[in-house]
């Protein structure tokens, strides 16, 4: 099991940042994530790392907390080859993802906006479309 120290923002009081520990347990084809915030346990399980992170992050968002990490950025995308790792690409519209664009999901990000999984998917589709348009 791996543990990650993360900052979360209370979305009702943006200046109120708290530290949490997120536990990640990978067993065969199952990834489980959990943490506790003010006595409430948050958890998610899935097969792929980033999809499980997104479920986990959305549950925190539903109760008013945003995780201040790279996985919470709008432009975070995970390729299929990274599916079982904590690595993601941070991409830009119209630009192919390169090795220099690889980051850890849990690395701290000083962000003030916390998109949902649906918003990240919309951005991902725009990014894929921009690559197709650029390459004809």
Characterize the largest beta sheet: strand count, sense, and whether it forms a barrel. Answer: 5 strands, antiparallel
**Distance between the terminal alpha carbons, to the nearest Å?**
45 Å
- Considering DSSP H and I runs of 4 or more, what fraction of the residues is helical? 10-25%
Identify the overall geometry. Answer: globular
Low-pLDDT parts are: none
Strands of the widest sheet, in order across it, are: 4-3-2-1-5
Please indicate the percent range of residues in DSSP E strands (runs of 2 or more). 25-35%
Summarize the helix and strand pattern as letters: EEEEHEEEEH
Oligomer class: single chain
Report the C-alpha radius of gyration, rounded.
Answer: 15 Å
Count the strands? 8
What structural class do helix, strand and pairing data support?
Answer: alpha+beta
Overview of this protein structure:
By secondary structure, this protein is an alpha+beta fold. The chain has one domain. Helix content is 24%, strand content 35%. It contains two helices and eight strands. A five-stranded antiparallel sheet has the order 4-3-2-1-5, covered by helices on one side. The protein has a three-stranded antiparallel sheet with strand order 6-7-8, with no helix packed on it. The longest helix is centred in the C-terminal third of the chain and has 19 residues. The mean pLDDT is 92.
């Amino acid at each position: 099991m791996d543990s990650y120290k993360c900052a979360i923002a209370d979305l009702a009081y943006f200046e109120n940042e708290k530290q949490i520990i997120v536990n990640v347990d990978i067993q065969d084809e199952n990834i489980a994530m959990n943490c506790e915030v003010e006595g409430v346990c948050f958890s998610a399980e899935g097969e792929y790392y980033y999809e499980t992170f997104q479920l986990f992050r959305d549950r925190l968002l539903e109760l008013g907390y945003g995780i201040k990490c790279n996985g919470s950025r709008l432009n975070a995308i995970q390729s299929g080859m990274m599916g079982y790792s904590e690595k993601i690409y941070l991409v830009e519209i119209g630009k192919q993802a390169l090795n220099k664009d690889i980051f850890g999901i849990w690395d701290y990000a000083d962000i003030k906006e916390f998109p949902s999984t649906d918003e990240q998917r919309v951005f991902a589709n725009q990014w894929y479309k921009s690559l197709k348009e650029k390459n004809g």
